[in-house]
Write a structure and sequence with these properties.
461 residues, alpha+beta, five-stranded antiparallel β-sheet, three-stranded antiparallel β-sheet, 44% helix, globular
């Protein structure tokens, strides 16, 4: 019998032996959009940021690491003081804040962050990643040398998002963004020339034309969709469709597997961080009215996402043909939670099905202590997003740029949805890993059980 996930409304359930129970104080619920917006605290991100001038241009950079308890700047040894990967994130979070609230200060910061991304982008569509303390570019480091690697697709995402925003309010600046975006199409087409070809890793069939893997491909699709809203031409449409087709194929399709619906990240591996396939496919489905993209996104959310929630989230899974899965629960980071929240939010927009908005709020509540450590991972008073959960007893209280920005993005993803906000305040009562379920409870005592059942074929919330 096919294995399905189920979400059931439950009466109060007795605690099960061997389960993890969490009881702790919560933030006071905000009843309005404006009230919840107060949870968006840029203080720590601003403390990590610095405005520098290169070739006479003001650029906002974000320092990479910040360590407990002083939380000063810490550079990446042998890499540099800042990178395209994190500055692009900063540009995206400020652009999103501008879209939500019309904040001109956020727009100005986004522009300065984009200036840095523009500077690090090269005429052939590739990007360097790091600069040193003297502002010279790290051209030789493994995580910095000119390429179309993960930092490049993040840079492209920021540039395309910026292009969509500035196209309306500052066409001259937008033109400069577009001139840096266009050469990346040659890089993308360099992957797409393998369209229709496949590679195999421990029995997993991997489309060869993906941008290195599923996670980077999803980021590229999201970038191109922003660009397409301004320039809806056939070249971009074909690129998006081929990349999305690759993601649809790079998915666990066996309904008898507990991983049913999971989109692989790379080769035979799923990892939580940056796994934005659901968001990319749901948004592409909406733009192109594609049922196949939407069904692929729903398949992951309706099945594998519920498996992850029932396990109180995971770090990575590795497939070995004919062998047991290698499942790692830790570390857990905001960058592993945010893609799920973004994907569920986008599915809600595409389907208008409130179940996805509810799940987005529950997943986002990982920040508020609904996690395996039972610890709050976003400090409202300082705006710090902590760097991760090491195990059930220990969290990493450092607060670098990535974790802080991803935490802010989680908050912003649910800010304008009252349904998500309601479920954000549910409290995790217990998780039973042996039974593959978690139980959440609202302030009135009403409970929801999220679990994996062999016999049941439907889920509702």
């Amino acid at each position: 019998m096919a294995l399905f996930f189920i979400l059931l409304q439950m009466l109060i359930t007795p605690s099960v032996s061997g389960s993890l129970c969490f009881e702790r104080s919560r933030l006071e619920p905000a009843e309005t959009f404006e009230g919840f917006s107060n949870y968006i605290n840029f203080q720590h991100l601003e403390n990590l940021s610095e405005v520098i001038h290169i070739v006479g241009t003001p650029m906002l950079i974000t320092h990479i690491y910040s360590e407990y308890p002083e939380y000063g700047w810490v550079e990446a040894k042998d890499e540099g003081v800042t990178c395209v990967d994190d500055v692009s994130r900063a540009a995206i979070v400020y652009l999103r804040h501008y879209e939500l609230f019309g904040d001109s200060l956020s727009l100005g910061k986004a522009r300065m962050a984009l200036n840095f991304v523009l500077y690090m982008g090269q005429n052939d569509g590739q990007f360097y990643n790091f600069i040193y303390r003297d502002h010279s570019i790290n051209t030789e480091g493994r995580t910095s040398k000119k390429s179309f690697n993960f930092w490049a697709v993040r840079g492209l995402r920021a540039l395309c998002y910026g292009y969509r925003i500035f196209h309306v309010i500052d066409p001259s600046y937008a033109k400069g963004l577009r001139e840096k975006i266009k050469p990346t199409f040659n890089q993308i087409n360099g992957f797409l020339k393998y369209y229709g070809e496949y590679e195999y890793y421990n029995g997993v069939k991997s489309p060869r034309w993906l941008i290195v893997g599923g996670d980077r491909t999803a980021e590229t699709i999201l970038a191109l969709l922003d660009y397409y809203t301004v320039h809806p031409d056939d070249e971009i449409k074909v690129m998006i469709e081929k990349l999305a087709d690759g993601l649809v194929q790079f998915q666990m399709s066996d309904p008898n597997s507990k991983l049913f619906g999971m989109h692989y990240s790379w080769r035979n591996i799923w990892h939580a961080w940056g796994n934005s396939e659901v968001e990319a496919l749901a948004k592409a489905a909406r733009v192109f009215s594609s049922s196949s993209y939407l069904e692929s996104a729903k398949r992951e959310a309706d099945n594998f996402y519920l498996f992850l929630i029932s396990r109180n989230f995971l770090h990575s899974i590795k497939m070995h043909e004919g062998k047991e899965l290698i499942i790692n629960a830790f570390p857990q980071i905001s960058y592993g939670i945010r893609p799920m929240v973004s994907g569920l939010k986008e599915l809600y927009i595409a389907t208008e099905d409130e179940r996805y908005a509810k799940l987005a709020g529950l997943v986002a509540s990982w920040l508020e202590g609904n996690n395996q450590a039972g610890e709050v991972m976003y400090d409202l008073k300082t705006g710090r997003g902590f760097d991760g959960i090491n195990n059930k007893e220990e969290i990493n209280r450092n607060s670098g740029a990535e974790s802080t920005i991803e935490a802010l993005m989680i908050i912003m993803d649910i800010t304008d949805n009252p349904t998500s906000l309601k479920y954000f305040y549910y409290n995790l009562k217990e998780t039973n890993e042996k039974g593959n379920y978690s139980i959440y409870r609202d302030v009135s005592g009403k409970e929801i059980k999220i679990g994996w059942e062999k016999e049941l074929r439907a889920w509702n919330i």
